[in-house]
Design brief:
The complex is a heterodimer of chains A (501) and B (98).
Chain A: H1 9-17, H2 23-41, E1 44-47, H3 49-64, E2 77-80, H4 107-114, E3 119-123, H5 157-164, E4 170-174, H6 181-187, E5 190-193, E6 214-218, H7 221-231, H8 249-256, E7 265-269, H9 279-294, E8 298-302, H10 310-325, H11 347-358, H12 361-374, H13 380-403, E9 406-410, H14 426-430, H15 437-442, E10 446-453, E11 459-465, H16 471-489
Chain B: H1 6-15, H2 22-39, H3 74-79, E1 84-85, E2 88-89
Antiparallel strand pairs in B: 1-2
Helix pairs in contact in B: 1-2
The chains are: A alpha/beta (501), B mainly alpha (98).
Chain lengths: 501, 98
Amino acid sequence: MTDLTRLSAAELAETLARKEASSVEATRAHLDRIAAVDGDVHAFLHVSSDDALATAADVDARRAAGEELHPLAGVPIAVKDVVVTKGLPSTAGSKILEGWIPPYDATLVEKIRAAGLPILGKTNMDEFAMGSSTEHSAFGNTHNPWDLDRIPGGSGGGSAAAVAAFEAPLAIGTDTGGSIRQPGAVTGTVGVKPTYGGVSRYGLIAMASSLDQAGPVTRTVLDSALLHELIGGHDPRDSTSIPEPLPPLVEAARQGALGDLSGLKVGVVTQLQGEGYQPGVLARFHESLELLTKAGAEVVEVSCPSFDYALAAYYLIMPAEASSNLAKFDGMRFGLRVEPTDGPVTAERVMAATRGAGFGDEVKRRVVLGTYALSAGYYDAYYGSAQKVRTLIQRDFDAAFAQADVLVSPTAPTTAFKLGEKLDDPLAMYLNDVATIPANLAGVPGISVPNGLSDDGLPVGFQILAPAKADDRLYRVGAALESALESTWGAPLLDSAPRLG
Amino acid sequence: MSTISRDEVARVAALARIDLRDDEVDRLAGELDVIVDSIARVREVATPDVPATSHPLPLTNVFREDVPQPALPVADVLAAAPDAQDGRFAVPQILGEE
């Protein structure tokens, strides 16, 4: 019998629809795989076997009764721990939320449950999504399935590793500065940050509200399109949610896979290559450009000079927003409460003691940095200037999209580094997101597609960016590139990853 | 060139309501100095003629009908609280000693 864990989500969905396997069998196969390999990978913080199997059994019964089901019904999924799930732990990788059981579901989780996707569990992440390696989780490191001594990227390293290690065919990530796309790049998986407002943020534990966006983590471009269509769309509970319907994404992915990109203009961003990018990363990037040209696309060079300031602007705006969002962790209504060991036990002193004990190093660093950037005397120089840079970056995007239909770059400057290598150097860690951050500042959508292995044998990602609300272009171009690459390789990239277990 | 002293870190941490140990204050003072130096370059291009942007897409106010919606069950919410009493959150003394 086929190993159900090796199928893409689309293939598994077809297998279930043809009744060649049941959702209970598929869910059990993934739970078995988790039991076999997650001791090494540690992608999951919590595995919800009973919940998943109950959903699977329900879907099987409905299918047997002839009920019309969602195309992904019965296909298991993993959810990043920053997304709240009713009845399942949701820690966001923080000690301050250890043991907290949310009383409600995020909108995207409601949609997943309504469509009948068994939730396998919650995935590991940098605490409150602050990091690029998942090493800032309060609950231990996640290991890259390609090399267990290396980082799986971050903040969504757990979701990416779970999908790369065949522990789940689908996962949910969130992307504030690259937390879906960079883990995708370093684990050889596909990750999509939708247009800001494309997927509801209701029920996401917020880091930076003007940058956060949830999206799909999968092994194929088509699977991302299927999941994106499921979780996307307008939500009255998120006032920044886009009212218009999503463009047809699955259709775009299927059309792109046919491989014809004639008439398409691809803009290579001058500022997102060169210095700081590993030679193997650049070599794969240029090979992918050739494949796009062969598919009929025209490649042009575009300049976005303000992108050189994007990282600096991001590290002011994001901590400023985070310092405000994280004020809710005050030890009063949910999560940890720590009382001071001496002196009066007032609410204010309890809050400070709780946060001192419950927040990890990176969270403290960013909240203090954000508070500093917003404090009297510094606001105009730092936060105010960063907001102006944001305007300049948006103008650069507008000018670039006047010259090209999509923009492209390597997703991350390097392949996965060793665990511990950059932990004591915050600035070096921040540089991982240099190519992904501009999209968040401007709200435009981006995808990372695995496009080969670097000289060190580790996966590399190719980033495609599209104008706001034109997410369909990501899928058209991404699927075209994926199919051209797989014809060259003769098999999906993950077939060359270590088998594990 | 910024210089973020230990005192400055302690002052900002107090504003942020985070108790820091002495060694954390020492470490953060050094780290924030380096980080703030590198991000201060936003000022190079932030000229007075450039408007500030706070949001990626144009925002308009959102209205809805003012109709009652079911709220979360109080028991579920309080079950996740550190302390509760009489159907409410129980919190420490809110005002100071004065």
